[in-house]
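Worked example 3 (structure in, sequence out).
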């Protein structure tokens, strides 16, 4: 874009930004826009007066935000309470796409298993299917979750879940194709796995047992898929940024999402190692764990980010900026 056209498109907005305001919410929004403008201007017009002008406006906004911050929050606390939810909220549409895509793959796994009796074996392996059938004949269909000691199982599962989720995320660098493949393969596997129990009349019993840990485990994989697509789309669709700058920005955001999943990896592993093995627990307890796990995911990754955004809270350079309505 020619510099003159860039100026014409934005000059009215920059003129508005020169008017003072005491509203931190407005200042925060201005600062975010100016950082984008400054990045674009530095890339294409590095030595122009336009770049110097935008830099001055951005500096003014930042100074106001820094002076008006409310509290010096602990950085880790800020990350979990404000930064990660607000960050993930920006990618809710991508999260919706990832979730729908994964569920479609699960459905395909169910349909394929129903149409072809050998499909389950081709996906899960003869050894696993035969072991499960043997456990069913023994009257203990979920006996696999009772093998080994609790801590060893917890540790192995945690490492496995982290490995799968990291692969799902890292393969996003291939334009998102690698991430979609991981979601596809895991979705097909889940659909086949679940169908195997429903076909034997153990469907709802399997839900009450397996999804004690599966709710968090599968949710983490889908969210890791979202992180992978954040990485991939940042490269494919750089917008006004240089492709390399957009990729760096996407990598930074997606890594934060993966970091945010760490507690869920370990909690899911804890449930599978220590809780799922108690296959005879009361139905109300199993349902409580299922509902509680689902509620945590829905609240933290969907409801809470929306509520934060509506409240006007901003996080800029690790600093929490509150709107005037929260100053009292």
């Amino acid at each position: 874009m020619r510099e003159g056209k860039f100026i014409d498109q934005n000059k009215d907005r920059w003129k508005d930004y020169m008017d003072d305001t005491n509203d931190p919410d407005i200042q925060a929004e201005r600062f975010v826009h100016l950082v984008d403008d400054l990045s674009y201007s530095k890339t294409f017009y590095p030595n122009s007066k336009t770049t110097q002008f935008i830099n001055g406006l951005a500096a003014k906004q930042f100074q106001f935000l820094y002076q008006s911050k409310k509290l010096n929050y602990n950085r880790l606390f800020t990350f979990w309470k404000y930064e990660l939810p607000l960050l993930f909220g920006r990618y809710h549409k991508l999260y919706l796409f990832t979730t729908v895509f994964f569920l479609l793959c699960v459905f395909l796994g169910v349909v394929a298993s129903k149409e072809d009796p050998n499909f389950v074996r081709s996906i899960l392996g003869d050894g696993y299917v035969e072991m499960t059938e043997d456990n069913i004949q023994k009257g203990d269909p979920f006996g696999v979750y009772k093998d080994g000691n609790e801590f060893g199982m917890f540790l192995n599962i945690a490492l496995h879940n982290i490995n799968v989720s990291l692969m799902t995320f890292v393969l996003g660098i291939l334009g998102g194709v690698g991430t979609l493949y991981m979601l596809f393969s895991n979705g097909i596997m889940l659909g086949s796995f679940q169908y195997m129990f429903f076909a034997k009349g153990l469907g709802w019993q399997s839900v009450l047992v397996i999804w004690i840990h599966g709710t968090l485990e599968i949710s983490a994989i889908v969210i890791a898929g979202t992180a992978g697509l954040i990485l991939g789309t940042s490269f494919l669709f750089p917008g006004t940024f240089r492709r390399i700058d957009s990729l760096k920005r996407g990598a930074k955001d997606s890594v934060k999402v993966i970091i945010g999943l760490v507690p869920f990896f370990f909690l899911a592993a804890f449930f599978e190692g220590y809780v799922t093995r108690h296959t005879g627990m009361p139905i109300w307890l199993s349902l409580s764990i299922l509902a509680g796990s689902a509620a945590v995911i829905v609240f933290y990754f969907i409801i809470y980010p929306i509520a934060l955004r509506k409240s006007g809270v901003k996080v800029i350079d690790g600093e929490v900026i509150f709107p005037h309505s929260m100053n009292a």
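Notes: Residues 83-311 form one domain. Strands lie at 314-316, 319-321.
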